Amino acid sequence: MEETAQQALFPWSAQLNVGVEEIDAQHQELVNLLNALHASISAHQPLDRTRAALNDLADYTRTHFVVEESLMRVFGYPGFGHHKHIHEALMLQIKQLQQTLDAEHTEISPDQLDFLKVWLIQHISEADKRFGEYLVKVGTAQEWSAHVRETMERRTWWWKFW
């Protein structure tokens, strides 16, 4: 088996597509970052390298959530409040994980990594698919896709949100 195949926690699957190109691309990046975290842990890299991989995942997740939530507000998504609450709960858990790693100078356990994997798969497969269907239904998905892509590429605005 190839080394990269051994290190991947899970591959991206078209079954995870939500039907909105830019959100799907961001989800793919989240999977890549989670796989990079897994690779760091599997390679027994120093704790600071693993913490940096976790930070990258946390930062991109936060940015992705801001984009999703902004779109939900702009297009009047009826499930916005609940979806935002789910996002906030995950970010709190990631922050607690970061604090635990810093305080105890310990590694991320397989259970913690598995939690992140399962959470991401379930969230995309359920909540994000509902949101994607809503955007496609209201016919707005293509109107903002280029703007979102450009904003994510610049990534100069994210600091204003936290």
UniProtKB/TrEMBL annotation:
Q: Which InterPro entries match?
A: Haemerythrin_Fe_BS, Hemerythrin, Hemerythrin-like, Hemerythrin-like_sf, Hemerythrin_metal-bd
Q: Which PROSITE patterns match?
A: HEMERYTHRINS
Membrane-crossing residue ranges in chain numbering:
none
Its domain of life reads: Bacteria
Where do the Hemerythrin-like domain residues begin and end? 19-132
Look up keyword Translocase and say if it applies: no
Keyword list, A-Z = Iron, Metal-binding, Oxygen transport, Transport
Q: Which family does the record assign?
A: Belongs to the hemerythrin family.
What protein am I looking at?
Bacteriohemerythrin
